[in-house]
Design a protein that fits this description.
Low-confidence stretches: 1-5
Order of helices and strands: EEHEHHE
Number of domains: 1
Strand order of the largest sheet: 1-2
Helix content: 40-55%
Number of strands: 4
Mean pLDDT: 80
């Protein structure tokens, strides 16, 4: 915040940089919420198919790692791994 004294009164004027940060964090929160919703809606027998994880990644324009991190936070297992890492 930028503090300015105007005619003996102090007012708070947010800088445009700080406003951008608030907007950016809101967008990040919205995207994270959307990722969580998409991931939960895509579960098959309580697991997330690997190919679907990649589809979600492309659709939401986030890295596959972000999808994997969200799956870990939600304690969701990946199934049908395309690399053979998760049987």
């Amino acid at each position: 915040m930028i503090w300015r004294a105007i005619i003996g009164h102090t007012i708070t004027v947010p800088s445009s940089k700080e406003e951008g940060m608030d907007n950016e964090s809101t967008q990040k929160g919205d995207k994270e919420r959307l990722l969580e919703e998409k991931l939960k809606a895509s579960l098959v027998d309580g697991r997330l198919p690997c190919a679907v994880a990649f589809q979600i990644s492309r659709k939401l324009k986030v890295s596959p790692r972000k999808v994997g991190d969200m799956a870990n936070r939600l304690d969701v297992k990946i199934s049908n791994c395309q690399l053979g890492c998760f049987p």
